[in-house]
Structures are given as structure tokens and as C-alpha cells.
Specification:
Mean pLDDT of chain B: 90
Number of strands of chain B: 0
Distance between the termini of chain A: 43 Å
Radius of gyration of chain B: 23 Å
CATH architecture of chain B: Orthogonal Bundle
Number of domains of chain B: 1
Number of strands of chain A: 20
Shape of chain A: elongated
Strand order of the largest sheet of chain A: 6-7-8-3-9-10
Number of helices of chain A: 8
Structural class of chain B: mainly alpha
Distance between the termini of chain B: 32 Å
Largest sheet of chain B: none
Low-confidence stretches of chain A: none
Structural class of chain A: alpha+beta
Largest sheet of chain A: 6 strands, mixed
Helix content of chain A: 10-25%
Oligomer: heterodimer
Helix content of chain B: over 70%
């Protein structure tokens, strides 16, 4: 268990910028998600912490010690790869025990530790199976057991769930979180799946085009995105352009709204999460303290627990998620009012 | 049913061809190997096991057979020692145009006639030849090397001829090893040697075996390299068999020796097969 400190790291591959002055402190024992679209540099950052890539500039420390010149095999890390990377010429026992044998640990102790690790990932009794005799989820567990059996200082996960089908992925998310809590190992998890990042991590770092654009707890980032990119990448957001008018914004789709903060530039984009909007039929009068805009229901999607509406406002279609309280659907072509609180109306400069 | 017909029509031309070109001549040879003489003109021939008996009666033949197997093993070993590192570098360290160029160099010898290649070796190896000249120029007073018509000269020629097979088969199997496996091993603390012996070699074993078989079998029966580069020292079972057909005109004995050789090669391959199966 250890803390990892990334300081002002830059990396170019030819003319493409993989990472641009990224700094971050991964605290001891926590679960971090590095989230970003493909090509954002998240995997490069993970591979640098592992030691597979070296930064052009900047430095990485593990437990306060600079590791820039320490090769992968001496860094004492555990890593789970996207395709599991189980050794096909070895059985489960040998796969999990590999790191221990390399470290010169005796056969009897290796067997004991491997047994414990397999128990932790709930694969006891699979010792003599070969990787090709295991299902995807089981391979994933073996890969995880192999990575943690050596008690590494940091556990690095490179999109480990992306190859699993949806049900298995949800199950593994819970498992991974449980195991991480059990062994309390500093874990850095790379993913492009926002749901994974939200449900699993203590802290999320969002990368875009090589830069760490925002970091914080899942709730903090979701509720307080600091850019249109973050608002759109983590969760859904309705984005409405408009002109600043003092402390208010005149939306291009019609209507004037009060925003959480004072608009900082004349051209702005307002962002409202679909679930923060309530929908009213025209005859119902929305509360006056709220922002409201008029629209017409285009389509409704019934999900059981929730109702999703696509509402035409001016030339834009807004998404609205409503909890299914009444069981009543507003049918298409109905004129409606959308209302949302000023504190849920975020405003960003329009670049 | 339709699919079976399709499969049949796909494989039957090749198998018909193989049947005609391999099975027919081979069965003719098998037939000859049991005859007392070549059935040409008015010669009296009869069925006999004498040709096979000759091999077991005269120690000379089994000694030569052993010598050929030793040659096969040595050539294969040298090809492996030279070819495997080369294949590893080509598969895992070199990319792009450089790799293409290096592959071309490996395949280039195939473009020239085998006989020409071996004859050119005699230019290099013979007394006062190219090699001797340059070594004496670099290190004056080395004197004659005496390489021509020796066992090492045969080894040299054969390794030269068969090395590309080992490089290519090993390359294919090393190239198929997922780089993530090697990275995973490093992340678990494994050094280069451990990765080489615990992962790369076992995973490349199919290529090593394929290359070894492709080299071992023809080398045992080879006669051109031993004859041209070995001279008086170039007597192997392959040259003896060739003699029976071209010089002595004893086809039955040549055929019988060929079948004994084939049988022994099969035995050797059978002996190695559990090793291959274990790593599958």
C-alpha cells in the first residue's frame, strides 16, 4: 500500500501529445478512476505509473520515492490487463503463483498464498484449470488474484471489465470494490465507462486530450462540472446556448433563466441535467422561483422506474428524466413547461 | 450434405495430386525394395528380404545412419541457436521497413539455385579460397584453414541452407505471443531471463518443433552438401542411397535403405510428440 504522486508529467508520441503537464496525488488505500475518451492519455498515464512508458518531462513518486529510473519489474506493482494476459502455458495455480516464484518464495508458502488469493476472488478449487478452460469472468478473477497475491504497493487496472458482458461487468464491479476494500490497496483504474467510474471509485480524474481537466469525488464532479466537456462526459446534460444579460441568460430556444453563477462571458452555454428538470402540462403553473421554458413533447420512453421525455424547445430537443411516481404519461404533441432550479442551471462560457 | 460436397471439392484436387506424386512413386520404391535385382530387360528377379537384411548385417550402414542422425541433430541445433534469437528480435523488437528488409534478406537465398549456392561455398572454403585469403590478410601467418572437405564445412553449408526455415517458423510462433503477456510477467517482477525461459520458449515451442522437423528430416537424407563440401568425408546415408541409384545401379538396396531411414525418422518424431502435446 502506498501513495502515488504524479508531478507535471508530459509525454509526446511523435507529434501527438499523449499527456500535457499532468499532476495528481493518488492517496494511500483509495480507489481512483482515470476516466476519459479514447486517446485522452489515461492509459499512457497508467502505463507510466507501471513503468512501461517513461515521461518526457516530470516525475513519478511512489511512497515519496522517485521511481523514474526503476524498471517495471522492480516497482512492486500489480497490474490487470484489458485482455487479462493470463499465461496460456500455465494453470491457474502457476499463473497466480508466478510473481511469488519469481520472488523466490518457497513452494509451500506459494501454495498457501495462492490458495488465499483464489479464495479472495472466490475461485477456490480452480487451481489446476488452464486459462482456456475458464470463462471470461473467471479469467478476470485469476488475473486479479495474480496481481494482488504479491501484495503490491499499487494495483493498476487497465479497462479490466471492458471485455465482459453487461451482467458480468456489474457483478465484477461489486467484487472488485469488495476486494479493494478487503485488502485496502491503492488502486488506479482506467476506464472510458462513466458508470464504472461513478459506481466504483472514491476519486475520479477526468482526462481530455492529454490534460487532467477535473478531479474530485464522483458526487462533486457530477454536481459541479467545471467545463462543458466534463458535464457532457460524466452523465448526461442538456446544453443550451444563450446570451448573458446581467445575472441572467437569454436562451436561444426562448426564455430567460437564472443561473447558479453569474455568466462570465457574453456568449454562454447552459447545462441542465435531465433528471433535474420537471415537466408540467401547460395548465399546471410551475413554481415561480424556478426557471422555465416552453416546449412540446416529441416522444416518451417508458422505462418502468422512470419516464424519459424528448421535448422540443425551439430548434433543440431536451431530455427529461422523471421518476415514475404517478404512472401517468404525457403523450406526444402535448404542450409542456419545463422547470428547473437556478442552482441546477450551470453556465459556461461558449468558446 | 452440401457443405460436405464443397469441402470435398476443395480438398480433393490437392489430395489427388499428392496421391499421384507421392504414393505412386513411393509404392514403386517399396516394390523395388523387396526385389533381388532391377527388373530391366531379361534379368531374372525374385522377391527377397535380403536388401533389408544387408542393413542389419553390415555395421557400416548403421554407423552411417547414426552419423546422419548426428548431422541432422547438429544442424538443427545450430539453426535453432542462430535462428531463434533472430526470430525473437524480428518479432518483438524490429518493425516497419527495417523488418521488411530483413525478411527479404532471409528469403533471398531461396531465389537462387541450391546447387549454385553450395558451389559458391566451395569458392569460399577451398584452399586459397576467399575465406582463407581474407583471414590471412587480417591475421597474417594464420596459414591454410583446411576447412574444405571436412565435417565442419558440411555443417556450415547445411546450416546456411536450412536456417531460414527455423527463423520463419519461430518468427510465426513468437509473433503470435501477445505482448501483454510479457508486460504482465514484467509487472509481476520477472526479469528478462525468466520471461525468456518461462514464457517465450514454451509458447514458441510449436514453431521450434515445426522448424526442427522441417530441417532434421531433409538433412538426414541430404547428399548434395555432403558430397560437394565434404568430399571424402562426406559419406552419409543420403549419399550412399544416392550412389545406389546413380552409380552402383542397385535400386533395391537404395529403396530398402530409404525405407529404413524413413522408419527411423518416424520413430524419432514419435519420441518427441509427447513433448509437443504437453505444451499445446
Amino acid at each position: 500500500m502506498a501513495s502515488v504522486s504524479v508531478q507535471n508529467i508530459s509525454k509526446n508520441f511523435g507529434i501527438t501529445v499523449a499527456l500535457d503537464r499532468v499532476s495528481y496525488e493518488f492517496e494511500n488505500g483509495k480507489f481512483f478512476a482515470l476516466l476519459g475518451p479514447s486517446g485522452s492519455g489515461k492509459t499512457t498515464l497508467l502505463r507510466m505509473i507501471a513503468g512501461f512508458e517513461s515521461p518526457d518531462r516530470g516525475s513519478i513518486q511512489i511512497d515519496g520515492k522517485v521511481v523514474d529510473h526503476i524498471p517495471v519489474e522492480k516497482r512492486d506493482i500489480g497490474m490487470v490487463f484489458q485482455n487479462y494476459a493470463l499465461f496460456p502455458n500455465m494453470d491457474v495455480q502457476a499463473n497466480v503463483g508466478f510473481g511469488l516464484r519469481v520472488r523466490g518464495i518457497s513452494t509451500s508458502e506459494t501454495r498457501l498464498l495462492v490458495g488465499e488469493a483464489l479464495e479472495l476472488v472466490r475461485l477456490s478449487g480452480f487451481d489446476n484449470r488452464r486459462p482456456d478452460q475458464l470463462s471470461g469472468g473467471q479469467r478476470q478473477r485469476v488475473a486479479l488474484a495474480r496481481a494482488i497475491v504479491t501484495k503490491p504497493r499499487v494495483l493498476l487496472l487497465d479497462e479490466p471489465l471492458s471485455a465482459l458482458d453487461r451482467n458480468l461487468r456489474l457483478e465484477m464491479e461489486i467484487e472488485l470494490k469488495r476486494i479493494q476494500r478487503d485488502v485496502r490497496i491503492t488502486t488506479i483504474f482506467v476506464t472510458h465507462d462513466q458508470e464504472e467510474a461513478l459506481t466504483m471509485s472514491d476519486q475520479i480524474g477526468i482526462l481530455n486530450e492529454g490534460q487532467l481537466v477535473q478531479h474530485g469525488s464522483p458526487v462533486d464532479i457530477y454536481e459541479n462540472p467545471q467545463s462543458v466537456f466534463v458535464a457532457r462526459f460524466l452523465g448526461e446534460a442538456n446544453l443550451l446556448k444563450g446570451q448573458a444579460d446581467g445575472s441572467r441568460v437569454n436562451l436561444n430556444v426562448g426564455g430567460t433563466v437564472q443561473t447558479r453563477s453569474k455568466p462570465a462571458s457574453p456568449q454562454v452555454i447552459c447545462s441542465i441535467r435531465p433528471e433535474k428538470i420537471s415537466i408540467h402540462k401547460e395548465q399546471d403553473i410551475p413554481p415561480s422561483s424556478s426557471n422555465h421554458i416552453a416546449g412540446q413533447v416529441n416522444e416518451h420512453i417508458f422505462n418502468g422506474t422512470s419516464l424519459n421525455y424528448l421535448v422540443q424547445c425551439g430548434d433543440q430537443v431536451l431530455r427529461v428524466f422523471v421518476q415514475n411516481l404517478s404512472g401517468e404519461l404525457i403523450s406526444p404533441n402535448t404542450q409542456v413547461h419545463l422547470s428547473f432550479r437556478p442552482e441546477d442551471t450551470l453556465v459556461f462560457p461558449d468558446a | 450434405m452440401n457443405q460436405r460436397a464443397a469441402v470435398l471439392s476443395l480438398i480433393s484436387p490437392a489430395y489427388l495430386w499428392l496421391t499421384l506424386t507421392i504414393l505412386l512413386p513411393l509404392s514403386a520404391m517399396l516394390y523395388y525394395s523387396f526385389l533381388s535385382d532391377v527388373p530391366i530387360g531379361s534379368r531374372e528377379v525374385s522377391w527377397t528380404l535380403e536388401n533389408y537384411g544387408t542393413f542389419f548385417e553390415k555395421a557400416f550402414y548403421s554407423e552411417l545412419m547414426l552419423r546422419s542422425f548426428k548431422l541432422g541433430a547438429e544442424v538443427t541445433t545450430f539453426c535453432l541457436l542462430l535462428g531463434f534469437p533472430c526470430a525473437l528480435a524480428l518479432a518483438k523488437s524490429i518493425g516497419g521497413r527495417t523488418k521488411e528488409a530483413l525478411f527479404l534478406l532471409i528469403i533471398l537465398p531461396f531465389w537462387s539455385n541450391a546447387l549454385v549456392r553450395i558451389f559458391s561455398w566451395t569458392m569460399v572454403l577451398r584452399g586459397n579460397g576467399i575465406l582463407e585469403y581474407y583471414i590471412n590478410w587480417l591475421l597474417p601467418g594464420t596459414g591454410p584453414l583446411g576447412l574444405m572437405f571436412t565435417y565442419p564445412a558440411i555443417l556450415l553449408g547445411l546450416v546456411h541452407s536450412y536456417l531460414p526455415y527455423m527463423i520463419l517458423t519461430c518468427y510465426i510462433s513468437i509473433d503470435a505471443i501477445d505482448n501483454q503477456l510479457l508486460e504482465a510477467a514484467r509487472s509481476l517482477g520477472a526479469g528478462k531471463l525468466t520471461i525468456f525461459f518461462r514464457l517465450i520458449v514454451p509458447l514458441a515451442l510449436p514453431g521450434i518443433v515445426a522448424g526442427s522437423v522441417l530441417i532434421f528430416i531433409p538433412v538426414i537424407g541430404s547428399f548434395m552438401e555432403p558430397r560437394l563440401l565434404g568430399g571424402r568425408n562426406g559419406t552419409f546415408i543420403g549419399t550412399i542411397i544416392e550412389d545406389q541409384f546413380t552409380a552402383v545401379f542397385n535400386w533395391p538396396l537404395g529403396a530398402a535403405l530409404s525405407f529404413i531411414m524413413m522408419g527411423l525418422v518416424l520413430l524419432v518424431l514419435l519420441g518427441f510428440s509427447p513433448l509437443v502435446r504437453r505444451f499445446k
